[in-house]
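Lay summary. Proteins are chains of building blocks that fold into shapes, and those shapes determine what they do. In this project we predict the shape from the chain. Here is one chain we studied, written as its sequence of building blocks.
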Amino acid sequence: MPGINILTEIVIGYIMPGNPLASVVFKTYGCTSMGQAINFLSDFKLGHYMKIPPRSMFIAQLAGSVIANASYFGTAWWLLSDVPHICETNLLPKGSPWTCPSDTVFFSSSVIWGVVGPRRMFGPDSIYSGFNYFFLLGLFAPATVYLFHRLFLEKKWIRLINFPVIFAAAGYIPLVKTVNFNCWFIVGFVFNYWVLKHHKQWWGRYAYVLSAALDAGTSFMAVIAFFTLGNYNINSVNWWGGVTDDYCQLAKCPTEPGAYIPKGCPELE
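And here is the predicted shape, written in a compact code that computers can read:
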């Protein structure tokens, strides 16, 4: 939920500037809890689709929440205690999965919106003040699609443009890599365009269940990969989708003139 996520960080950043802990707590209650509620509603929708009684579905969700909370807490405690240099990318062996990309983004957000604050980052006198115009872009982009659709009714593809989905997907870029977007696009195009167009009855009956099955399969594969590879210190498999350098090589280089230049970074003039 990138939109609500940023909104909560901006609000608490103005209310309590310089307080990263308050930013994290407010973001958790204002955004993360809402995201979990939407996930629960999605599960309810799947249960309704599969003719599962609502009361049974709710009990299963409640039990799952209790078990998941205990499991997550225990797993996190175990990982932080037993995995050397966890989340320290410069000290981890090559290909290690313990880089904590999601937690790193969460920490960076607390620094940007909590320590620095939105006023200093995106205020009128800041160097990033121009980013505020993207709020207007997000407001008027869907209206532009609607306008062009009304002007060019014969162009059926215009109504398929969904800027909220495009912008929301961009919010995941700090975590995922380009190979993720390629897979999402291929699967989405095949099942939500080709299959929908040529096998609409099959799509209407199985598409939603297939989506849940793919999510479940990913979770099962993560568990299997951990026990079959992780236990033997095999951190990565050499295949085209498992590249570890799918990012800009200069992303960690300094940009401030006069700063120390690490090996492999270009000289600043």
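What the prediction tells us: Residues 178-269 form one domain.
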